[in-house]
Amino acid sequence: MAAPGVDDAIVGEGPRPPAPRDPSRTARLLGLTGALLMAGGALGAGALPVPNPLFGIRVLSLPSRNATVAIALTYAGIGMVVLAWLWIGKMLRNNGAVAPAPTPGQLARTAALWALPLALAPPLFSRDVYSYLAQSATLARGLDPYTLGPAEAFGVDDPLVRSIPTIWRDTGAPYGPFFLVLGRGITALTGNDIVAGVFAHRALALVGVAMIVWVLPKLARRCGLDVGLAMWLGVANPLVLFHLVSGMHNESLMVGLMLVGFEVGLRAGERWWDPHFLGGGVLIVLASAVKLPALLALGFLGIEWARRRGGRVRDVAIATTVYTAIAAVIYAVFGYGTGLGVAWLSALDAPSLIRSWLSVSTDLGLLGGQVGILGGLGDHTDAVLSLTRAGGIVVAALLAGWLMLAVLRGRVDAITGMAAGMGAVVLLSPIVHPWYLLWAVIPLAATRAMPRARRAMLVISGILAIVVPPTGADFNFRAYQLPMSIVAGLLVLALALLVVRRSLVGRTGVDVDAWPGRVPAGRPQARPGAPL
User: Fold this and answer.
1) Domain ranges across the chain
2) Where is this region: Disordered (predicted)?
3) pTM above 0.90, yes or no
4) Measured at the alpha carbon of residue 494, what is the angle toward residues 491 and 495, in degrees to the nearest 5?
């Protein structure tokens, strides 16, 4: 009797190779591990309220006792999420070269799993939620949140004020009335309970994210883009996870309403009283009553409707008239219902109190001011800033007008035009925070056009995801913690990459063409998509 394996060798069959590792699954688990580390680190490194409600609670208070370790774990988690996201993007881009690329369903589940730990943890990267609570409470008490800062309305020792950064304690609300009305409802439910208020605002932010999840595949199909690619760039994006889910910025509600309104409006027929045409306008105006820049999408939707009717001056005039009337009615209802009129429009420049290095117009103003100082002309930085910022707004308006004209003539599709217009507004506005880029990144994720801009957004998203401190504030008086935490976080990240390196680079010892659904080299790919 032949020895075991001899007959197999004779017939050309050897022992079965080990099951191949799935680099997609490894990358998704790496991102989930990073999200869990971030959630744990948030207990000590997050934007916690003052006083910290975790003090005295066993186990949960441990991270806050050693903030350096907590920050290190958070930075390690940030690195894992960003690298896992970039690797999945490489799989989607090089489908057939890296196997197997995750399906749209897997991407949706992955985004949900990565978001879940962040949704249950304290906020990271921003303390804006405490301003939301105080400004909403100001309105609930019958005061004007646009003229009164939280400190003036409640006093600096009030629990709603103590957690707000000092620079914003005396500043009026820069948000639209719809958002503050929603916040007033949260105040009615939670009162002065800051923890309950924070989680209520996170629930509101998740409603906005859910709208984005619902609408993005529909917009991608309109543009002929692979849904998986759109979901990866627009939903699993670290900027979305970090700043809309964890940081709970109201951009989630603004962008969600804006895109849902755009999708609804694109379903409209040629009659101006079509419910889709009117409903889309209402939703976008509501988005602008959260943050005013969303109103730009209304212009692109009206231009697209006019183009479908023939693109005549009369068509543009009808769209302009209808949407202007809708905006006027909604703003009037909010003004009358809150008793504040249009006071919110005068408070929109509040964020410009700080100087943002991400703003092109602000950078030019600061550069011009320094040139004047070096040239012996004195310090006129504020005057130069006012000129460059005004110029940036004018240039953004001209670019948006040019894009609308291109949409009217059929040279650019409406979704691409709107995304590019929002990008111009973001980059040229006086103040730019990393999460502002989502105004353009999320709609851009749904279009096949502008692949270079999409690649740029990919790189920018990865970089900006790691530049905002997890505490949501600077490191004054404890600057030693930051370099120590970053070094420790990098060591943890390096150790994690050593553990998963074989799976991520596909060194499995088997033929990768054997993966189910794998497209062998030299054969055309069946998966539709667009290059990143």
Assistant:
1) 23-124+471-506, 355-430
2) 1-24
3) no
4) 90
